[in-house]
Design goal:
single chain; alpha+beta; 5-stranded antiparallel beta sheet; two-stranded antiparallel sheet; 8 helices; 17% strand; elongated
Length: 272
């Protein structure tokens, strides 16, 4: 979880129920070591150094950040709540990762991570960091699932049907996300994300010619789905949005289904 989950009651619940979790801290909480969290972790002996690949996003350039890592177990003070509180102190593992030798004008990477995982050894602390680093991919998945596939816009009469729809769209979102991640790959065949039938229908739909014997690349499939979904590849519209990829995928599924029906009808006529 990101910083919005730094809620004492949630952390207490997770520990009490032996949940496995990694939560990024947002508050400089008091701890029983008579210090504040950031002060305590900053004064700890360095456990190790590592590197983290920071992806490009917005105006931020991609870079490889050198990270200093410290870890400890701390017991958080119980926060004061209106009307009193029955909560008790919570003991958590903490991994503190902060960037060193930061490029000029760049905000340093800094993670204060609560966890129920072991953090004493170097490999344990790095594992917690690896888990949190997956949050970027989780964000991309939710973007593909919500903005692309429009899972939040779906309406069903029954909750169970809505759940089924969400699960199906989650599978599609993973495929679209994979396609986008491999969008510059000219070596990998598109059959990594499309079936034999799908890519041939896509080729006929976009290229207007008979498909080649060998599958085209993933890069071609990414652009072809974008074109089918309404992308024109202008200088102002270089990137293909998840919503456009979803529309291309939706149209491809319709055309593939139509192709199957045509084959079925053709087979029936031959049998007759």
């Amino acid at each position: 979880c990101d910083r919005e989950a730094d809620i004492y009651e949630f952390l207490s619940y997770a520990v009490e129920n032996r949940m496995r979790f990694v939560v990024r801290a947002s508050q400089d909480r008091g701890i029983e070591e008579q210090e504040r969290l950031w002060q305590h972790m900053s004064s700890r002996k360095v456990l190790c150094f590592t590197q983290v690949k920071v992806p490009q996003r917005g105006g931020r350039k991609a870079r490889t950040a050198k990270i200093k890592v410290t870890s400890a177990h701390v017991r958080l003070h119980v926060p004061k709540r209106a009307g009193g509180s029955e909560l008790e102190g919570v003991t958590l593992g903490v991994v503190y990762a902060v960037e060193v030798k930061v490029p000029k004008g760049v905000k340093p990477l800094e993670w204060m991570l609560y966890t129920g995982e072991p953090v004493e050894r170097e490999e344990e602390a790095l594992w917690v960091m690896e888990l949190y680093a997956l949050r970027w991919r989780a964000d991309d998945f939710h973007k593909a699932w919500k903005d692309g596939c429009g899972v939040e816009r779906r309406r069903q009469h029954e909750a169970e049907n809505l759940l089924r729809m969400a699960v199906v769209l989650a599978i599609v979102a993973v495929r679209i996300m994979t396609l986008k991640e491999l969008s510059e790959d000219e070596q990998t065949p598109c059959t990594k994300v499309l079936s034999e039938e799908q890519w041939k229908v896509l080729w006929a739909s976009v290229e207007k010619t008979a498909p080649p014997k060998r599958p085209a690349s993933v890069k071609w499939a990414h652009e072809a789905l974008g074109r089918l979904g309404g992308w024109h590849g202008s200088k102002k519209n270089v990137k293909i949005a998840y919503k456009t990829l979803w529309m291309g995928w939706f149209l491809l599924e319709e055309r593939t289904a139509g192709w199957r029906i045509a084959l079925s009808l053709n087979g029936l006529s031959r049998c007759g």
